[in-house]
Amino acid sequence: MPPGWQNPLKRCENYVFKATISADPISNPEDCIVMVAHMERLELAFIRLGKDTPWTYMDGSDNIVPGCRMIQEVIYIEQRFYAVGYFNELLSFDVTSQLYSKIHVIVPEDKPIGQVKRYIFEGEGKKLFMVQRYTDYVEVEEGFHNRVTKKFRVFELNSAKGEWVEKNSLGDIAVFVGDNSSISVLPSSLSGCRSDCIYFNQDRDHIANLSPAHDFGAYNVLEKSFLQTYPAHVEKLIKRSRQLPIWVIPTLYFEL
């Protein structure tokens, strides 16, 4: 268990903020690595399925990258993990054993900008993109506030210059963001899905955010506008649930 988890916690499942895998654990378990951002400081830890018993913690104690924490999303592309942090920094490393390689700072830290959540995903041509989600809190009744998404911005990685370059469009893809790892898809493969749109679910700002779902919908990047995506009865069902929704793209395997 990660340090600090020794004492029983009423809602300990919320102490994993984000998780991703390097390979399908069913079809390719030998190459599957589970990477999580955990605890209050959102540090990284990983385990190789079928190979490791304890977790390996990338807590900065080895001084590879001071401040390697406050991770908002981690993904796996082309044999490497990429992680984006609260200050827009982008880190890269690989895992070959219970050790991990030197962490490379692809994009250095920048100044934080208000209430912003960051997501990264692989786009067309295996390019790396970042979505910034700008939120605010509005009073819904006296003493109670709900988080509301105000806008999105899209950036593409310029690895040569080590910087994020803002884009006005996603092109022919759509992106799904939330508590799950961010997913980019070709809308032609999903009925009812629109290109150049960001579909978003409410996700946790931090481990203590346990409010019911209310901040979800779709955003057209080119037009900079929000779309009505759910029928009224679906919105009502989501808002009644105490569990925040996630996106699922099923892949079915059949043995013939």
Radius of gyration: 19 Å
Biggest β-sheet description: 5 strands, mixed
Give the SSE order as H and E letters: EEEEEEEEEEEEEEEEEH
- Intertermini distance: 40 Å
Shape: globular
DSSP summary: helix tally: 1
Describe the structure.
There is one protein chain. With about 260 residues, the protein is mainly beta. The protein is built from 1 helix and 17 strands. The strands form 4 sheets. The protein has a 5-stranded mixed β-sheet, with no helix packed on it. It has a 4-stranded antiparallel β-sheet with strand order 1-2-3-4, with no helix packed on it. A hairpin with a 4-residue loop joins strand 6 and strand 7. The chain is globular, with a radius of gyration of 19 Å. The N and C termini lie far apart (about 40 Å).
Task: Throw out a few tags for this protein.
256 residues; 5-stranded mixed β-sheet; 4-stranded antiparallel β-sheet; globular
Fold topology:
Layout: E1 16-21, E2 33-38, E3 43-48, E4 56-58, E5 71-77, E6 80-85, E7 90-93, E8 104-107, E9 116-122, E10 128-141, E11 144-158, E12 163-167, E13 174-177, E14 183-185, E15 197-200, E16 217-220, E17 225-227, H1 232-240
Parallel strand pairs: 13-15
Antiparallel strand pairs: 1-2, 2-3, 3-4, 5-6, 6-7, 7-8, 9-10, 10-11, 11-12, 13-14, 15-16, 16-17
Task: Summarize the structure in short.
This protein has 256 residues and is mostly beta strands. The protein contains one helix and 17 strands.
